[in-house]
Write a structure and sequence with these properties.
Elements lengths: L4 E4 L4 H20 L1 E5 L3 H24 L24 E3 L3 H7 L4 H11 L7 E7 L3 H13 L3 E7 L2 E2 L4 E2 L2 E2 H10 L9 E3 L12 H13 L10 H16 L4 E7 L3 H4 L1 H7 L3 E3 L11 H7 L4 E4 L2 H7 L19 E5 L1 H19 L3 H6 L4 H5 L2 E4 L1
Parallel strand pairs: 3-6, 4-5, 4-10, 5-9, 10-12
Antiparallel strand pairs: 1-14, 2-13, 7-8, 11-12
Helix pairs in contact: 1-13, 2-4, 2-5, 4-5
């Protein structure tokens, strides 16, 4: 003889609340308990950041050896990579916040990520545009290309903005030469221009212009003498092509706001910090960056440093040198897939059990007055 039993026509409120509570707890657990997920190219990034840190320390020692003190107020990390407010070779204004934020070896890891996202591979050739305004970022880029075994063609603007490498006896060409001499890096600039307005150091005193030229000369670099902005642009593009030889230039990396590299202040702000594959909207300012993008060459624009740091989870204005391996470029928070999957299975099991398999009715049988008084639905 078959047994007949009855279940309520609708699910009780208590069961619905129970399912909702379990779902809420599961959602809270998934949102709270995150895991740190290692990012792509982790090993290369770590290697580049370590190399950059080594270069930072070497430059600090060299600065102290030359008798140039470090101002703890403007350089709280005591990196030795922050210059003066003003000096005879200061070409432009600068932001101390950006300069302090740039003192982070993990920017080398950011550059590794940007180069690899631009499909640059070992053995490729890239063009680099440096100025003296952000020596720490120049170091980061050199550390990245060394790590990836990429061949760079570098053109430097020797002058520097406020707080950059603007100490006349220790400018960027001096730093670059020291790093080469100590075998930390194996590449250096192919040529250097005076920098500043029109890439001719306009606005500097005669003494300042002589000091800039002296820094280029004592480090054995060819001086890029230009007549005006357009001439600087033409000479730079020609030099990149000449030094690249038969190799295709796979990417262009700009550091800071070198006039002809970015296209004055207007051109600098049109491009986004990071990787650019297309021309920005707005007025087209002829520049090295613009010409490379027009030729289909990806451009990595290292400007707006605070935003770039925030995008990659790097500390703003660190009070000490950040440890290697910090930032979103190394690790990103992600949901725990096991926890999320378990929570989903638990909710689905409750729904199926209570709605289709009658678990709820059995659980509450004899306890729920509502279930007993509800109009029953016959089942066999």
């Amino acid at each position: 003889m078959k047994k007949l039993y009855w279940r309520p026509q609708r699910l009780s409120l208590r069961l619905l609340l129970l399912i909702a509570a379990v779902a809420g707890l599961a959602l809270g657990a998934v949102e709270t308990v995150r895991v740190h997920e290692k990012q792509r190219w982790y090993g290369e990034k770590l290697q580049a950041a370590r190399l950059a840190l080594r270069a930072f320390k070497a430059l600090k020692e060299e600065r102290l050896r030359r008798g140039l003190p470090i101002d703890a107020e403007t350089d709280p990390a005591r990196s030795g990579l922050i210059g003066e407010l003003i000096s005879p070779v200061t070409t432009n204004t600068g932001h101390l916040t950006a300069k302090q934020t740039s003192i982070n070896p993990n920017f080398a890891a950011v550059v590794v990520e940007l180069l690899l996202r631009a499909n640059v591979k070992a053995g490729d050739t890239v063009a680099l545009g440096f100025s003296g305004s952000f020596p720490a970022l120049n170091v980061a880029v050199l550390a990245a290309v060394e790590t990836l075994r990429v061949t760079p063609v570098v053109i430097t603007s020797a002058g520097a903005s406020q707080w950059g490498a603007n100490q006349p006896t220790f400018m960027w060409p001096d730093m670059e030469m020291a790093l080469l001499r100590w075998h930390i890096f194996s590449h250096r600039s192919a040529a250097a221009s005076p920098g500043g307005i029109d890439d001719r150091a306009l606005g500097l005193s005669k003494r300042g212009r002589n000091l800039v030229r002296g820094a280029v000369a004592r480090n054995g670099l060819p001086l890029l003498e230009v007549r005006n902005y357009d001439d600087s642009l033409t000479q730079r593009m020609a030099l990149y092509r000449e030094r690249a030889g038969d190799a295709e230039i796979k990417a262009y990396v700009n550091v800071g706001g070198g006039t002809t590299s970015v296209g004055t202040r207007v051109g600098r702000d049109l491009f986004s910090p990071g990787l650019n594959r297309r021309l920005p909207r707005g007025p087209q300012i002829d520049s090295v960056m613009t010409r490379f993008v027009q030729q289909g060459v990806p451009v990595i624009h290292l400007s707006k440093i605070s935003k770039l740091a925030q995008d990659y989870g790097l500390e703003l204005q660190p009070r000490s040198l950040p440890a290697v391996g910090q930032g979103k470029t190394f690790f990103r928070e992600a949901y725990n897939p096991w926890l999320a999957g378990g929570a989903l299975l638990a909710i689905v099991a409750l729904l199926v059990g209570f709605l289709r398999l009658d678990w709820g009715h059995r659980l509450l049988a004899g306890q729920s007055h509502a279930a007993e008084t509800a109009r029953p639905e016959p089942m066999i």
